[in-house]
Amino acid sequence: MSTNNDANLIRMTNQIAINLGSGRDEDAAASAICRHLETFWARAMKQRLVASLDQADNELSPLAHRAATLLATRLAERQAS
Amino acid sequence: MIEHFDPRRQANSVDFSKDYGTPSPIPNANAAQVTLEIDGITLRVPEGTSVLRAAALADISIPKLCATDSLEAFGSCRLCAVEIEGRRGLPASCTTPVVEGMKVTTQNERLARLRRGVMELYISDHPLDCLTCPANGDCELQDMAGSVGLREVRYGFTGENHLDAAKDESNPYFTFDPSKCIVCSRCVRACEEVQGTFALTIDGRGFESKVSAGQDEAFMNSDCVSCGACVQACPTATLMENSVIDHGVPDRSVVTTCAYCGVGCSFEAQMKGDKLVRMVPYKGGDANHGHSCVKGRFAFGYASHPDRLTTPMIRDSIDQPWREASWEEAISFAAKRLKAIQAEHGRESIGGITSSRCTNEETYLVQKLIRAAFGNNNTDTCARVCHSPTGYGLKTTLGESAGTQTFDSVMKSDAIIVIGANPTDAHPVFGSMMRKRLRQGAKLIVADPRRIDLLKTPHLGEAQHLPLRPGTNVALVNALAHVVITEGLEDKDFVAKRCDTDAYQSWRAFISEERHSPEASEPITGVPADAVRQAARTYATVPNGAIYYGLGVTEHSQGSTMVMGIANLALATGNIGREGVGVNPLRGQNNVQGSCDMGSFPHELPGYQHVADPIARGRFEAVWGVKLDDEPGLRIPNMFDAAIEGTFKALYVQGEDIAQSDPNTQHVEAALRSLDCLIVQDIFLNETAKFAHVLLPGSSFLEKNGTFTNAERRINRVRKVMPPVAGKQDWEITQDLANALGYPMNYAHPSEIMDEIAQLTPSFTGVSYQKLEEHGSLQWPCNDEHPEGMPTMHAVNFPIGLGRFAITEYVATEERTNRRFPLLLTTGRILSQYNVGAQTRRTDNQRWHDEDVLELHPSDAEVRGVRDGDWLGITSRSGQTVLRARVSERMQPGVVYTTFHHPGSGANVITTDNSDWATNCPEYKVTAVQVEKVSQPSAWQQRFTSFDQAQKGYLAKAQQEAP
């Protein structure tokens, strides 16, 4: 069942990316998406999303992938601090 | 000259228990004052006041029958005649406005003789059964007969009369007894002026005149919507509540707040001992001003329904019968399970759902329990599935998660846009106010796939319907904004002063693009470009344009985007920050605004303070005495996903029926079945409770103290009028559970909870029960800056400083029609039923709507050979259900519609998991379906029926076995 949940999180991220992506350059878009995930997603959801970056066929859109990668960095920084 | 002055009688201290005969001329306006003399007393009243009202203000009572202060003067009964120095005859004081220097006499022999004569004529055609009449002791006709000293009826009673006229008992809540009618027209005028339905009329002329519903139809067969305005206005027993006929006139009365929709009407709960005899809309209610609808006025019988849960119940698994338990046993059973689950599966494996039907104090307490005692932020509320996009969208653009206006503001609007809302059904009392303004000439624009009843307002002026395709809201709002910008209709001054320039410039460039033009959008929305242009021009060019919206905006994959699109439109046209304008979400449930304010969302502490904000969190930690998690928790749909996955194991649900109200029922059921511990606190065995392990019987709004916050941010008192059926108010149950979990809570009264809310919530610092008693109600923000609250928001600046335009790119929903699912299903509500129907289905409101039906356009029906009343199987990508067909021209071809008030209908078996990108608010309004004739209920419905029977059996067994 867990793959269902993962697929859902990826679908949600892609949806956020489409909606927050327009009208922004890619850097700004990725950071807006990352900020959205930080603000609204539960810890476990963020961790699951970040973990899915390891799967090559994760179906994240390029922008969503970039935002998720940024989220991974920020989570790691937070953990380190 | 001695002035008559009473400091208690200032403009805002009207005695709402008194009838002043005619309405206040211009409420709250600084009208010129007129000085006159009545019975030797000099007084000053606002220009436009009637002599009748002026006298009443000076405590001089002039007899009256056809006049009442909720209706315009009519001047038909002649009982209120007075003498005015220098004028001929005896004018009716109700229709005579005051004039400077006027000298009025209200009592002398000549007037007394006239009034006795008038009364004598009335009584000559009225039954003399006062002692056995249901209005005995509460009858204006009786009072006036006494007041004028009527002693005989010289005409006798043998002449032609109406004493044998037959009663109309078709309405379940009131009886129409025309034998008692004095044809004062108060009911007819109330139906027109107050309710705006125009269902009643005076049929015939002269002696033949009689009140008639429609064209001499029974009330139930007429256009009557059973709002009760006529019953309220009737001065005799002609229109009388059946509950008063059955039980007699109530002997005490408590002002409280209705627990149905987000209008939050004030009512007098009129009691006899512990029995609620009737609910009477309270004239002093700032939201409703004495009006009501069929739900609040009449549908209160559920509170004493035999289905009410009265004893806590526990069981180890959901395929076992229930076992009655003491409160202590049930609470400790629940606490032990929660602790064991956390010990095994971790701190984040449990959560809770606060109720938008419970009070602010109760909601606050549940989220406090979750954050402080569960130690995580897994709290959410039903706003997730209705107005969470409003929170996100308005906070992003305007800086505050709430509507900007009071309801009264609509009376100053010149154009009203209604998007995805159906106020005459879902917010009826506000719908009536809107209709009043529309009759006065305000222009109406409705953007809705359906032709809603507001478009059928009698005496409606200019109105436009933009029948868009479900799911294309954002394309439409962008097209409207495109017209505003490209035709130079924006309010440049407002934008320059009040809005962030960079955000505005990027939005302006975006929205000006040709692809957003009405012509380019027409193939997407289906709305003719001309109509869009005309609507945009109307809204942008009137002095005051207001936007009202409902779940037809929020419950989409782009719900949040649409809310921002609406805010963009209001900002661009400067329609923010004064009366008559604004962005107004019409909230679904009674306290959905309050539940959001009280920190029900997983990412926000009370007052919309983010959990990651260390300063805000620190304040809560200091007062609550625990360390709080700085990460948001799970939202309702995320909880379901996590439950099915096996990482989320226990849920505490207060007054919310997720199994019926949330989308994709089979997915929700699977999630609920996966839980090791489901604690349901409700007044009935609702659909969710059938999956529960612990049942905690809750209390209705009549059984508790607290506050509700309505759609206009108005905090209103809820007052206890009877003891809780099961012994505890809901906040007491939550408190017990917290204590059992080892987190101490010791509140003695909800006012103490409100004091804590005020201490921790910047927008509530000025709120207290004492202040609510003094003011009646308060609209937040209520703090040092705004000690009396704030009726109109954003007048000077926004909480974020400048208004922020947001880019609103239209993204088509993934839910598409195709050959297999060629129709779009959209869902909504009906006047007589409320939400999941748990309350209204247990009242006579069933008489109006005892099953959910599928509305479809005649052409879609014809292609499928469907006739009215046929059984239809409705299939989507999520599931199938079966409903009866209703062929209706309200629908556009290709779109079908149903409601979700009855659990067996399975409307949400069909709706999907799709949700708003920002908030996960489900996309209830767009589901691709196929419809075909069938002969039996769907597989889900058959399973539902057997599960339902088994669960009801488990409950009945426990109740029988109890000592």
Automatic annotation (TrEMBL), chain A:
One matching Pfam family is: FdsD
- InterPro entries membership: Formate_DH_dsu
The domain of life for this entry's organism is Bacteria
What's the protein called, per UniProt?
Answer: Formate dehydrogenase subunit delta
From TrEMBL, chain B:
Q: Which GO terms describe its molecular function?
A: 2 iron, 2 sulfur cluster binding; 4 iron, 4 sulfur cluster binding; formate dehydrogenase (NAD+) activity; metal ion binding; molybdopterin cofactor binding; NADH dehydrogenase activity
Q: Locate the 4Fe-4S ferredoxin-type domain: which residues?
A: 172-203, 216-244
Q: Where is the 4Fe-4S His(Cys)3-ligated-type domain?
A: 110-149
Q: InterPro entries annotated for this entry?
A: 2Fe-2S_ferredoxin-like_sf (IPR036010), 2Fe-2S_ferredoxin-type (IPR001041), 4Fe4S_Fe-S-bd (IPR017896), 4Fe4S_Fe_S_CS (IPR017900), Asp_de-COase-like_dom_sf (IPR009010), Formate_Dh-H_N (IPR041924), Formate_DH_asu (IPR006478), MoPterin_dinucl-bd_dom (IPR006657)
Q: Where is this region: Disordered?
A: 1-25
Name its GO BP terms in alphabetical order.
formate metabolic process; respiratory electron transport chain
| Listed PROSITE patterns | 2FE2S_FER_2, 4FE4S_FER_1, 4FE4S_FER_2, 4FE4S_HC3, 4FE4S_MOW_BIS_MGD
Cited SMART domains: Molybdop_Fe4S4, NADH-G_4Fe-4S_3
**Alphabetical list of Gene3D superfamilies matching this protein:** 2.40.40.20, 3.10.20.740, 3.30.70.20, 3.40.50.740, ADC-like domains (2.20.25.90), Dimethylsulfoxide Reductase, domain 2 (3.40.228.10)
This protein's record includes keyword Chloroplast: no
Q: Which CDD domains match?
A: fer2, MopB_CT_Fdh-Nap-like, MopB_Formate-Dh-H
UniProt domain 4Fe-4S Mo/W bis-MGD-type: residue ranges: 251-307
Which keywords accompany this UniProt record?
2Fe-2S, 4Fe-4S, Iron, Iron-sulfur, Metal-binding, Oxidoreductase, Repeat
Q: Which residues form the 2Fe-2S ferredoxin-type domain?
A: 32-110
A GO cellular component annotation in the UniProt record: membrane
Task: Indicate yes or no for the key word Oxidoreductase.
Answer: yes
Q: Which NCBIfam families match?
A: Fdh-alpha
Report the sequence similarity comment from the record: Belongs to the complex I 75 kDa subunit family. In the C-terminal section; belongs to the prokaryotic molybdopterin-containing oxidoreductase family.
Stated name of the protein: Formate dehydrogenase alpha subunit
